[in-house]
Amino acid sequence: MRRIAKALAMPQIMTEREEHSVRTSSKWRRARREHLRRFPLCAACEREGQTIAATVVHHVHRVGHNREKMFGTPLESLCALHHDRDAQAREKAGKKRGHRCAIRPDGFPVSRDHAW
What we know:
It contains 6 helices and 2 strands. The chain is mainly alpha-helical. The chain has one domain. A two-stranded antiparallel sheet has the order 1-2.
């Protein structure tokens, strides 16, 4: 049975505790430090014509609890304001209770970006 699961290459889903462990690991701290060294300015501020130092490394695509996406997915440097206000708001928009979207006849959401 284990061989079948490995053969299917199911994504490794992390618990919140495991996710916290990965985010505080030396591997993530090194990756974060290196990214901020290479891209020290906030990408959103640069798009607005401002020059503000970045303090947060943000995953461009939602990672959720998927261990495979923690490393090797696109990252961007952001200042705390843009991360907390804009990026997190976009991510949370799909999680809010009562979020409405179009539903296909099979019961699944039409949008590929839906939180399911």
